[in-house]
Amino acid sequence: MIGVIEFYIYLHQQIGMEMENSLKNEFEKLKEETSGISSEKDILQLLTERFPGGAVFSTSFSYEDQVITHLVKNLNIDIFTLDTGRLFEQTYETWASTKAFFKKEIKAYYPDTEELKKFVTENGPNSFYQSVEQRKACCAIRKVHPLKSALKGYKIWITGLRAEHSPNRQNMPALEWDEDNQIIKFHPLLHWSTEQVTEYVKIHQLPYNYLHKKGFVSIGCEPCTRAIQEGEDFRAGRWWWEDANKKECGLHIHQ
Q1: Active centre residues (catalytic)
Q2: Fewer CB near the last or first residue (10 Å), C or N of the chain?
Q3: Which sign does the torsion angle of CA 14, 16, 17, 21 carry?
Q4: Which residues are annotated as part of the binding site for [4Fe-4S] cluster?
Q5: What ranges do the domains of the chain cover?
Q6: Cα 99 from Cα 210, distance rounded (Å)
Q7: CATH, domain 37-244, list 3.40.50.1220, 3.40.50.720, 3.20.20.60, 3.40.50.620
Q8: Residues 203-208: contacts with CB within 8 Å, 24+ apart?
Q9: Cα 152 to chain center, whole Å?
Q10: pLDDT in tens, 122-133
């Protein structure tokens, strides 16, 4: 005979499956509805109307993220960032200037203290240089796990991904279902060029990370990011000691 605890676990699982299927159905409808809409802002507006209070944007204060923050500043879309504890000082400065410029709340999420303490105690502060496995474990603790908390309760996750950033993103759709996080993802700038992004920032005089002017294209944690040389790939400055095809941190897993 099923016990009370087992019953509630079963009930919770059933409710979760129903919610997942319902959101997946909404995703299929959205794909059809947005297929004929070319304006990123119009799609963002549609998402806020369809899911009031259910959309969130993750920013790392890159050029792309500043553009999107400008696009969503007057929409019912929350914004959050992941503070890994190893960011550049310039990134923190951009965070402060962004908050002052847009006057919009930016929620911060951090690694679990005990989990991080255990990892660093056992492996040292810079074990990510030793192997891909160690680096991904560090990324999981500092970024992937906090992301789970940040996305909880939301139905739409808006990102600043662009196809130019990585070979893994060349065939990525602008609107996709994220199976791992059980959420709909929208990449409004997916097909924008670098020139379009930087020109938008310039025209609207948006605050930006000055490391971009020093050859830093993709900016993450300080120990894992370097400036790139002319002709190098966009992601060459991230985890430069690894194979180019393995350069993903686990935040964005294209299905």
Answers
A1: 249
A2: N
A3: positive
A4: 138-139, 221, 224
A5: 37-244
A6: 16
A7: 3.40.50.620
A8: 204/70, 206/66, 206/67, 206/69, 206/70, 206/101, 207/66, 207/94, 207/97, 207/98, 207/101, 208/61, 208/63, 208/66, 208/94
A9: 14
A10: 999 999 999 999
